TrEMBL record:
Belongs to the NADH dehydrogenase family. InterPro entries: DNA-bd_HTH_TetR-type_CS, FAD/NAD-bd_sf, FAD/NAD-binding_dom, Homeodomain-like_sf, HTH_TetR, NADH-Q_oxidoreductase, Tet_transcr_reg_TetR-rel_C_sf. GO terms for molecular function: DNA binding; NAD(P)H dehydrogenase (quinone) activity. It comes from the Bacteria. Keywords: DNA-binding, FAD, Flavoprotein, Oxidoreductase. This is Transcriptional regulator, TetR family. The lineage of its organism: Bacteria, Bacillati, Bacillota, Bacilli, Bacillales. Signal peptide: none annotated. The keyword DNA-binding applies. Gene3D superfamilies: 3.50.50.100, Tetracycline Repressor, domain 2.
Amino acid sequence: MKRSEKKQQTRGKILNAAVSLFREKGFESTTVQEITETAEVAKGTFFNYFPTKESIMETLAEDRLHEVDEYLRTYGLQTITFISKLRAHFSFFLGEYHFNPELTRRIWQHMVENDFLLLEKWRELLEIGIRREEVKADTDASLWANVINSHFYYTLAACKEDTREAFLDELMLLLHTSLKGILTKRGNRAMKRLVILGGGYGGMRILQRLLPNDLPDDIELVLVDKLPYHCFKTEYYALAAGTESDHDVRVPFPKHDRLSLHFGTVDSIDKDNKLIHMRGEEPLSYDILIIGLGAEDKYHGVPGAGENTYSIQSMEKTRRTYETLNNLPAQSVVSIVGAGLSGVEVASELRESRSDLHIKLFDRGETILPMFPKRLSNYVQNWFVKHEVEVISNSNITKVEKNGLYNHDDFIDSDAIIWTAGVQPNKVVRDLDVEKDEKGRVVLTPHHHLPDEENTFVVGDCASLPHAPSAQLAEGQAEQIAMVLKKRWNNEAVPEKLPKIKLKGVLGSLGKKHGFGVMGDTAVTGRVARLLKSGVLWMYKHHSGV
């Protein structure tokens, strides 16, 4: 081993031993002798590296300070605004806070008292802010660097919060109040960043409830979605069948100067560093996160199902399904796997769109739509008989191939196979290291956030809730999340128990003229049900500004 490497290794052993003992016994109660014994080095060796026990604290802080620029580069945080960058620095400096808040505070108090490196860092950030027109041009960077340092020191001495986030909130509130006078409008915006992942029904409703007047001045709102518009997932069946156009099943996202739209694909979420990793892009940082990434098809381990079936779970997949179905020659066979609400609506809409096709609907149960009252189930079954849609009950799809599927052991030729036999949360959510229910949905507190992270919410199909996922449920949940956030921001008490989310009912279509559903305790069928569903969609578009 090279001499320099050995010295670095010895230094690391001393630091690790000291930190371990400081956490266990406290700084005052730890002796140099104990540190050297734990590190297995001689006392003289210790003093070759550290003149005093106190100098260890200074070294720990300096090491962290020298690493911050690499941290910002690694996670693409150089371009965030001045206030957000300031918070990112403090967040990184206090990365060990959860191990021992008191020790972490003491280390950085010592740093502020005995070193000028922090002042240089704040001055550097201020000068960058001035160049980027986030900090006013006539700002005295040296003076305000001292202001930042003094606020940091005061918070270290006075704040007794147990968590890093609570400490940062207190510190940044103090800093933002003092720095507000030197910040431009551009630099003032991003004190904290609220990121909504997914512009579905839940994400859209939160935007509607926070904009334009209920977002604090120190909150930057960012919506992340693959597509530049909000899509009506409940209407994808009509797009797939060709009875509605692409334009009919989407609306633009709200436009507001407080809202930033970020279009891209989320690959993963780093909860520890509060970063969203984007495909082909730099990571996106957040302070508050709302995850509404929706659901994907679940294939239940059926071989070939993922590769050889079409889907209506996303706009992109639904478009491909539409192209395939509408390019089929006359008398082709279309098999639809799954006779829940989605399967029923696809089958009926496709029958109306293509009367020449042979449509087969595979149902695992004895009767179709068992979750509905028997009268509705019979009504839908009779509609299919009348319109020559073949319903195959008690089915069990064991394998799917390119030109057909196996029901039990019987092969059935199919020119196109559509999968509507179950969903699961988005893969990003499935990969999250959090508690989940038996269906893979995230277990939440009654206030819809993670049990150990009150600033990370989950809305919609990925959330574990008493009801089956639906647009109504996502919107009801979003209403409550928006209420919780607004009460927090206004320093109002959040109710310990939120009211149950009330669902108005479920409506399904059978083509453009007939439908079925339950509104409250009332079952409705025929034209009335279809008119109700059309009315709900019209109202939704109207409230979305279309």
